[in-house]
Design brief:
Structural class: alpha+beta
CATH class of the largest domain: Alpha Beta
Radius of gyration: 21 Å
Number of strands: 5
Strand order of the largest sheet: 2-3-1-4-5
Oligomer: single chain
CATH topology of the largest domain: Alpha-Beta Plaits
Distance between the termini: 36 Å
Largest sheet: 5 strands, mixed
Helix content: 40-55%
CATH superfamily of the largest domain: Transposase IS200-like
Number of helices: 15
Number of domains: 2
Order of helices and strands: EHEEHEHHHHHEHHHHHHHH
Shape: globular
Length: 326
């Protein structure tokens, strides 16, 4: 049987899972879990992937991740290989840690981002002996479970730098005390009633409303006469930096000097666009702008945080990315 196709495009959001080989454990203790999260954070930064939610179970993990650069396969390959090597060294073992390829399905961010986040966070209360507990015990266990992004959704001091929380909380009124309380309330409802998302996944690869499913199928999945269609990551071409800077300058009505050398949002936008569509890495962008590569990395992260809290900035970035994608 042929392998299922990976649907990859800029800005795609995925629910990703991977299990241990023969359902064996991939975490033997908390030291393994801490190492896993450290490698995850490093891989997210390296591949410019945005992490919305995660949970670590004994023999598998779940991620809710967004790939602005259409690079899911590259990100997961690097991440899985690095953690496997670390696990094998620590436990003096050899061989595969995971069972086959990771599983993923692309999701309609507008319709299902928060639902998938809740689904992921419910996992610790739905496995093993926890399934026999009553509702209050399950919910208490869930809220105390330390190896997921849920604590950061409920309590800001428990947040982790490598995860982002505002996009999911937008559905509940924003990243505010009221929004976080509503997220917790909805999670409790899901625990009591169930959240059967698996039945809504189409073709084991897409979760969304009818229009989203149709759009993804038409654009990215080969039909009977189109079996040689290349992956979107293959056909995406980089554009010249001068051309991109010209598009940004015209859209923002800012001179080139501001984009390159003056701290502020226009320069953050230029950093983002050059990375996404110009094929430039952080050190190259830093050299162009006269700053350290870490300034570029932090600048792009800062832009994501600003956009998550500013709808107008989100719209501007979406328009610019469409123009630059050509």
């Amino acid at each position: 049987m042929a392998r299922s196709l990976r649907i990859q495009y800029p800005g795609a959001v995925y629910h990703i899972t991977h299990r241990g080989n023969e359902r064996g454990v991939i975490f033997r203790d908390d030291a393994d879990r801490r190492r896993f999260l450290a490698i995850l954070a490093q891989s997210l930064a390296t591949y410019d992937v945005i992490l919305h939610s995660y949970v670590l179970m004994d023999n598998h993990f779940h991620l809710l991740a967004e790939t602005p650069l259409s690079n899911l396969s590259e990100f997961m390959r690097h991440f899985n290989i690095t953690y496997t090597a670390s696990f094998n060294r620590r436990h003096e073992r050899v061989g595969n840690l995971y069972q086959g390829r990771f599983k993923s399905f692309v999701i309609d961010q507008e319709a299902y981002l928060s639902a998938v986040s809740r689904y992921i966070h419910l996992n610790p209360a739905r496995t093993g002996s926890r399934q026999t507990l009553d509702y209050s015990q399950q919910f208490a266990y869930l809220l105390d479970y330390p190896w997921s992004s849920l604590p950061g959704y409920l309590f800001t001091p428990k947040r982790q730098d490598f995860a982002t929380y505002a996009p999911v909380l937008e559905e509940y009124g924003g990243d505010t005390p009221a929004g976080r309380a509503e997220y917790r309330r909805r999670l409790g409802i899901d625990l009591a009633r169930g959240l059967p998302l698996r039945d809504k996944v189409v073709g084991q690869s897409i979760l969304g409303d009818e229009s989203f499913v149709a759009k993804v199928r038409q654009r990215f999945l080969p039909g009977p006469q189109d079996r040689e269609r290349p992956a979107v990551g293959t056909i995406h071409q980089h554009r010249k930096q001068d051309e991109l800077l010209g598009i940004i300058a015209a859209k923002l009505q800012e001179p080139l000097e501001t984009l390159l050398h003056r701290p502020g949002r226009p320069r953050l936008v230029a950093m983002d666009i050059l990375y996404r569509f110009g094929g430039l890495k952080n050190p190259e962008i830093g050299a162009l702008m006269g700053v350290d590569y870490s300034t570029v990395s932090q600048g792009r992260k800062r832009l994501r945080e600003l956009a998550a809290a500013d709808g107008k900035l989100q719209e501007l970035l979406a328009e610019l990315r469409e123009l630059c994608q050509g």
